[in-house]
Amino acid sequence: MANIVQFEQVGLRYGSGPETLSDISFSLAPGAFYFVTGASGAGKTSLLKLLYLAQRPSRGVIRLFGEDAVMLPRHRLPGFRRRIGVVFQDFRLVPHLSAYENVALPLRIAGIADDEIDEPVREMLAWVGLLQRAGSRPATLSGGEQQRIAIARAVIGRPEMLVADEPTGNVDPEMADRLLHLFVSLNKLGTTVVVATHDFHMLGRIPDARMMRIDKGRLDDPTGALRHPPRPVE
Ligand SMILES: Nc1ncnc2c1ncn2[C@@H]1O[C@H](COP(=O)(O)OP(=O)(O)OP(=O)(O)O)[C@@H](O)[C@H]1O
C-alpha cells in the first residue's frame, strides 16, 4: 500500500530566524508505529505540527493520504484534520466542556447521532480510568487526568493516523503502560501511530516500533531511513 505520509526535503523556519527543521525526508507506512525522539528543542513538536497540518513548511514537499498537503486549499484542511487524532503536549481541552463532552467532541463533529455517542465515550473514559470524572471540567482535573482525557478524545474516532506529543509525560508508569496499550490496540486496528517521547521505558515497550531521531532540526539519518530496533536517546 502507498505511504500515508511522505516528506521530501522539508524545511521549517519560524519568522525570519534560522531553520528549525532542515532537509527532512522520510515516509510513513500505513499501519506502522513510529517514535520520534531527540533532545529538548531538537524539533519534535515542530515535526508533529507539520504532520497534523498545524504548520506549513517553508520549503519542500509533504504528501498526506496521497495528496499534496502543502498546496491543499484552506477549505479542505478540516476534512484532512478529521482523519488525524492529535494528543497535544498542552492537551488543549475545551475549558467550558466536561471531560465527557471533550471526549465526545470528535464524534459530534463527525455527525454521529446522540444515541450512538454515549457507549463509546463511556468505554473510552473507562479505558483511561476516568469514568467517575465524566462530569468534571478540565480545570478541576490534574495534569495527568487532563492528558488522559486528551488521549481519549484523540483516539475515540479511530483516526487513520494518531499523532501524540509526549503523551505519557504526566502519568505514572502504570498508567503510561495502559495508555501505550491503548495506542497499540488502535494501531492493530490499522491506525498509523506517531508518538514523540523522551520516555526510554516507552521506547522499549513496542518491539515493532520504528524510530525517527531528530538532532538539531535534522533527521540523524540523512537518507531518512527508519531505525529498528530503537536505540537510546541521550
Ligand atoms: N512558534 C515558534 N516560533 C519560534 N520558534 C519556535 C516556535 N516553536 C518552536 N520554536 C523553536 O523551534 C525549536 C524546536 O522546538 P520544538 O518545540 O519543535 O522542539 P522539541 O524537540 O519538541 O522540544 P521539547 O522536547 O522541549 O518539547 C526550538 O528552538 C524552539 O524554540
Automatic annotation (TrEMBL):
Q: ATP-binding among the record's keywords? A: yes
Q: Which UniProt keywords apply?
A: ATP-binding, Cell cycle, Cell division, Cell membrane, Membrane, Nucleotide-binding, Transport
User: SMART domains under this entry?
Assistant: AAA
What GO MF terms are annotated?
ATP binding
Q: How does it sit in the membrane?
A: Peripheral membrane protein
Q: Which residues form a coiled coil?
A: none
Where is this chain primarily localised? Answer: membrane
Gene3D superfamilies the record matches = P-loop containing nucleotide triphosphate hydrolases (3.40.50.300)
Localization:
Cell inner membrane; Cell membrane
List, for all copies, the residue spans of the domain called ABC transporter: 5-233
* One GO BP: cell division
Function in brief:
Part of the ABC transporter FtsEX involved in cellular division. Important for assembly or stability of the septal ring.
Q: Subunit comment for this entry?
A: Homodimer. Forms a membrane-associated complex with FtsX.
Family named by the database record: Belongs to the ABC transporter superfamily.
Q: What is this protein called?
A: Cell division ATP-binding protein FtsE
Mind giving the lineage of the organism this protein is from?
Bacteria, Pseudomonadati, Pseudomonadota, Alphaproteobacteria, Sphingomonadales
The record's gene field reads ftsE
